[in-house]
TrEMBL record, chain A:
<dbReference type="Pfam" id="PF01008">
    <property type="entry name" value="IF-2B"/>
</dbReference>
<keyword id="KW-0648">Protein biosynthesis</keyword>
<dbReference type="InterPro" id="IPR042529">
    <property type="entry name" value="IF_2B-like_C"/>
</dbReference>
<comment type="subunit">
    <text>Component of the translation initiation factor 2B (eIF2B) complex which is a heterodecamer of two sets of five different subunits: alpha, beta, gamma, delta and epsilon. Subunits alpha, beta and delta comprise a regulatory subcomplex and subunits epsilon and gamma comprise a catalytic subcomplex. Within the complex, the hexameric regulatory complex resides at the center, with the two heterodimeric catalytic subcomplexes bound on opposite sides.</text>
</comment>
<protein>
    <recommendedName>
        <fullName>Translation initiation factor eIF2B subunit alpha</fullName>
    </recommendedName>
</protein>
<dbReference type="InterPro" id="IPR051501">
    <property type="entry name" value="eIF2B_alpha/beta/delta"/>
</dbReference>
<dbReference type="InterPro" id="IPR000649">
    <property type="entry name" value="IF-2B-related"/>
</dbReference>
<comment type="similarity">
    <text>Belongs to the eIF-2B alpha/beta/delta subunits family.</text>
</comment>
<dbReference type="InterPro" id="IPR037171">
    <property type="entry name" value="NagB/RpiA_transferase-like"/>
</dbReference>
Automatic annotation (TrEMBL), chain B:
<protein>
    <recommendedName>
        <fullName>Translation initiation factor eIF2B subunit delta</fullName>
    </recommendedName>
</protein>
<keyword id="KW-0648">Protein biosynthesis</keyword>
<dbReference type="Pfam" id="PF01008">
    <property type="entry name" value="IF-2B"/>
</dbReference>
<dbReference type="InterPro" id="IPR027363">
    <property type="entry name" value="M1Pi_N"/>
</dbReference>
<dbReference type="InterPro" id="IPR037171">
    <property type="entry name" value="NagB/RpiA_transferase-like"/>
</dbReference>
<feature type="compositionally biased region" description="Polar residues">
    <location>
        <begin position="169"/>
        <end position="202"/>
    </location>
</feature>
<dbReference type="GO" id="GO:0005829">
    <property type="term" value="C:cytosol"/>
</dbReference>
<feature type="compositionally biased region" description="Low complexity">
    <location>
        <begin position="51"/>
        <end position="65"/>
    </location>
</feature>
<feature type="compositionally biased region" description="Polar residues">
    <location>
        <begin position="104"/>
        <end position="121"/>
    </location>
</feature>
């Protein structure tokens, strides 16, 4: 999910050529504003860059923007929704730069429009929540996965409309963001239970609908979301339960993955097999940590140095260092093909997966 | 929107009727004699029987435009449609021209239409031939009232009268006029078989040898008897098409456009009319000749429609030379923008999907896929290719040669082995002949098999297709619209240059055996993962959106733009400037 993707090693936060460190700025936006999603934070930081840009020609200006967005993308491990935001903003910038030729006027225009864009983005979630409420019927049992701001907003809105429903939330290891979701829902008066990720098949027959958010929607209408979404989608399809995706339209990404391994987040070092010939390898390092209930509540927005977040004695007892190894060896997002998705609730309306491509073509052509 | 199939069927009818009276060569008398049908007594008998079958087959004529509706009457007559040609053995006489002459008259029963559409075509032509025969019988037994004739018969009558008029003015065609009358008596007999099962008459038709060089179904490639206004470049092209010397949608389209450029350059507007009006008719004549040689591909159809649109927009005041120059430039632009540069863009997009370690499977030979694989190899990506091929065309061999010469590691297998090799495959790249509006792929026969097997194995199927091949047509199965190749190709089981006949060598003698050599098939959209076009990668379901939204007549890419980003920048800029100029 979005939040946990912030836990990455800061690799190149310092090698931006200008004094303006876009990655720091981006992180700052995320820290200061709980509700801001990654793409919006990226756009905000790009606007900051425009404010402080020392470029004198339009092409230099464009170059600096392009480089900054590249830097941003490479700074986080999971950059899909971030790249959706930066691509959208860059497209907007390009269009403006063709209409307005004066650099200063261009900058002015961009900053104002950027502000408007960010404001619109905040309102977009509420619009989606309104649209999505119609899919929750009275006495429904909903299944959600991990933590998505839009989905929780939707459920809260439905509760406000006095709809009675219950929610199963998957724990979604290794980030355990599902626990967070359940807390928020309970506060809103919605009965919520955390289930194991592995228990989705077990309860699917009790469920009436599945709602998930997304990091990004790809060109064919498929989703990129926290790891585990694809599994839930397959189970839901087999059990004939509708699978709804709830997503803002600025997260439409210009990607077309052919399968899981065609994602930019899939690197060759993921899910590799260990080299067992080396003698220094500890046998225990391959064993599964024995404390499943120790949730690594990775507080997002804090700089992570790769450690387990402050439980040193448990580390030793349960070999958490090795757990860290296999967690970092595992993917954080997966791709759900469009044939498993029933409908997408976006601020552009309720779309079918093939409708997403039509919308994208309208945007781009 | 003009349904391409329908407009072509209309012109096929016209062309066929025109051709039947004008383009009959001199050698036909030999043939009719050898068939023992030259005596008038026989003729009378056959025409009388024919009128009975006309009633049933005239219904089919009305359904032909529907295409699918003729299914009921279709298959039997479709099968019969091919049988006249199947009744004729390969000729051993030397000389291409002579062979072609015999070819044209013997297959007057199974003209291009049946090669284009199996069932409806056969019917229509039989009705027409029957109709013309009826004319002759009517002339001898008393004039039939106009009301009783069907539309096709009336048109046939008109054509006959027109031909007679032309014959009166030129003595040449007078001799040939007699020939069709005797000849057409041959053709109704197969329709009788469909109608009344009088198989006896079928067997009395002796088998004559004919050349197996040309398509076997096509007619009108007789260069000696082609209408006078056909440009020599088009004559050459027609022959090349009929003999499958030029194969592949892109190649055929470019060859056609290049030939048409020559036609336009040599064209002189007649005195009483303007270029924009007359040139279209002039070109239509050339197009009809090409259609007779081999049915038009969707790519050719779209290109020609584009040219005709360009012609129609030429002002009345521009001089001949200006107009011709402009048209040639437009044709060049079309080839460059919609084919050459589009192919380059497709390769650019496709390169993103080829990684080190990939095992790529491809079927038959697509020019774009070939370009893509060569470019990927040149870029240094380490991958290997499995080329799947199929008889009788064996087009994969050319691709294999090209790839191995470039140093790519290749495997070659036939279509029946595709299930076995799919185990190792990581991606499948396919080419396209056309894309239907419902997202189905119309491509070389066998493509559907490969796509379905790959999908079953969860292997992504990627189709590379330029947007000019998108058509508004919707086709639900492979039979409604297809092209038939020469059935004799199936007899030769050799996979090398020397031909080797197999078990089917005696198929002409067997009355119940027919060979079907289909050229294309349909792949439903759920088996295709993505389509790579010059505007990017889109899912199959978005094909109709693209052809609706982009106003291709105005978007022009003037150079190869690096990367999608710049391409979109350019397009956006163009859109805005065009928008500004139009308001």
């Amino acid at each position: 999910m979005e939040a946990q993707s912030e836990i990455t090693s800061v690799s190149n936060g310092d090698n931006v050529d200008s004094e303006f460190d876009i990655v720091k700025c981006y992180r700052k936006f995320l820290r200061d504003n709980e509700d801001m999603s990654m793409p919006i934070a990226a756009i905000e930081s790009l606007i900051e860059l425009i404010k402080q840009s020392k470029a004198t020609t339009i092409s230099e200006f464009m170059e600096s923007l392009k480089n900054a967005s590249q830097t941003l993308k490479s700074s986080t491990r999971n950059s899909i929704s971030l790249s959706a935001g930066t691509d959208l903003f860059l497209r907007f910038v390009t269009r403006t730069s063709h209409d307005v030729t004066n650099l200063d006027a261009c900058k002015e225009h961009l900053m104002n429009s950027g502000k408007v864009l960010v404001e619109k983005a905040a309102a977009v979630r509420h619009k989606i929540a309104e649209l999505g409420v119609q899919f929750i019927k009275d006495d429904a049992v909903i299944l959600i996965h991990a933590y998505s701001r839009v989905v929780t907003l939707l459920l809260q809105r439905a509760a406000k409309y006095n709809k009675r429903f219950k929610v199963y939330v998957t724990e979604s290891r290794p980030t355990s963001l599902g626990v967070r979701s359940s807390k928020i829902l309970r506060k809103a008066g919605i009965p919520a239970t955390v289930i194991l990720d592995t228990a989705v098949g077990y309860i699917i027959d009790k469920v009436d609908a599945v709602f998930v958010g997304a990091e990004g929607v790809v060109e064919n209408g498929g989703l990129i979301n926290a790891i585990g979404t694809y599994q839930i989608a397959i189970v839901a399809k087999t059990a004939n339960k509708p699978f709804y995706a709830v997503i803002e339209s600025y997260k439409f990404v210009r990607l077309f993955p052919l399968n899981q391994y065609d994602l930019p987040t899939h690197t060759p070092d993921l899910l590799t097999f260990p080299d067992l010939s080396s003698s220094t390898q500890n046998d225990d390092s391959e064993s599964i940590p024995s404390s499943p209930l120790t949730c690594h509540e990775h507080k997002h927005r804090k700089d992570s140095d790769g450690s387990s977040g402050g439980y040193p004695d448990l580390d030793k007892a349960a070999n958490i260092e090795s757990a860290q190894d296999f967690e970092s060896n595992n993917p954080t997002v997966d791709y759900t093909p469009p044939q498993y998705i029933t409908l997408l609730c976006t601020d552009l309306g309720v779309l079918t997966p093939s409708g997403v491509s039509d919308e994208l073509i309208k945007l781009y052509l | 929107m003009d349904h391409e199939g329908q407009s072509m069927s209309a012109s096929y009818e016209d062309q066929w009727l025109l051709g039947s009276s004008e383009s009959k060569p001199k050698g036909v008398d030999n043939l009719s004699r050898s068939r023992g049908l030259s005596d008038p007594g026989n003729k009378e008998k056959k025409t009388v029987i024919n009128s009975a079958s006309i009633a049933t087959s005239s219904k089919a004529i009305k359904r032909i435009s529907g295409g699918i509706g003729a299914g009921g009457v279709g298959p039997s007559s479709g099968g019969v449609g091919s049988s006249p040609s199947s009744r004729v053995k390969p000729s051993t006489e030397g000389g291409l021209g002579k062979d072609k002459k015999q070819l044209t008259e013997t297959i007057s029963a199974s003209p291009p239409k049946s090669s284009k559409r199996q069932s409806p075509g056969g019917n229509a032509l039989f009705v027409q031939t029957a109709a013309t025969t009826m004319m002759t019988s009517a002339n001898s037994t008393g004039k039939k009232s106009m009301k009783e004739m069907t539309k096709a018969e009336r048109r046939a009558l008109q054509e006959r009268q027109r031909a007679e008029k032309a014959a009166r003015s030129s003595p040449n065609t007078a001799a040939s006029k007699k020939a069709p009358q005797t000849n057409e008596n041959v053709t109704p007999t197969p329709s009788e078989k469909a109608g009344s099962n009088t198989s006896g008459q079928f067997e009395t038709i002796p088998v004559t040898k004919k050349s197996n060089v040309s398509g076997g179904i096509s007619k009108g490639t007789n260069t000696a008897s082609a209408p006078k206004e056909i440009h020599p470049a088009v004559l050459v092209l027609g022959l090349q098409f009929a003999e499958y010397k030029i194969c592949g949608a892109n190649a055929r389209c470019i060859a056609t456009l290049t030939a048409f450029k020559k036609v336009i350059q040599d064209y002189k507007t007649p005195n009483n009319t303007t270029l924009s009006r007359h040139l279209q008719t002039h070109l239509s004549a050339q197009i009809n000749y090409l259609k007779n040689a081999r049915p038009m591909s969707v790519s050719m159809g779209n290109a020609i429609r584009h040219i005709k649109w360009e012609i129609s927009t030429i002002g009345y005041d521009s001089s001949d030379n200006e107009a011709k120059e402009l048209l040639c430039k437009k044709i060049d632009d079309f080839i460059r923008d919609r084919i050459t540069v589009s192919d380059q863009m497709i390769v650019e997009h496709g390169l993103q999907k080829i990684q080190d370690g990939d095992v790529i499977l491809t079927y038959a030979r697509s020019s774009v896929v070939q370009e893509l694989l060569l470019k990927a190899h040149a870029k240094g990506i380490k991958f290997r290719v499995i080329v799947i091929d199929s008889r009788p065309r064996l087009e994969g061999k050319k691709l294999l040669k090209c790839l191995t010469e470039a140093g790519i590691n290749c495997t070659y297998a036939f279509l029946h082995a595709v299930g076995f090799v799919l185990r190792d495959v990581s991606k499948v790249f396919l080419g396209a002949h056309a894309f239907m509006s419902n997202g189905t792929l119309y491509s070389r026969v066998g493509t559907a098999l490969v796509a379905m097997m790959a999908k079953d194995n969860h292997i992504p199927v990627i189709v590379c297709c330029e947007t000019y091949k998108f058509t508004d047509r919707v086709q639900l199965d492979s039979f409604v619209m297809n092209e038939q190749g020469n059935p004799n190709e199936l007899v030769n089981i050799s996979t090398s240059i020397t031909s080797k006949p197999g078990q089917l060598a005696g198929w002409l003698q067997q009355p119940d055996l027919k060979l079907l050599n289909l050229m294309y098939d349909l792949t439903p959209s759920q088996y295709i993962t993505t389509v790579i076009t010059e505007i990017g990668m889109i899912p199959c379901t978005s094909v109709p959106v693209v052809s609706l939204r982009q106003d291709f007549k105005r978007v022009q890419v003037s150079a190869v733009l690096q990367g999608t980003y710049d391409f979109f920048v350019f397009i956006n800029k163009l859109k805005r400037t065009k928008g500004a100029s139009s308001t």
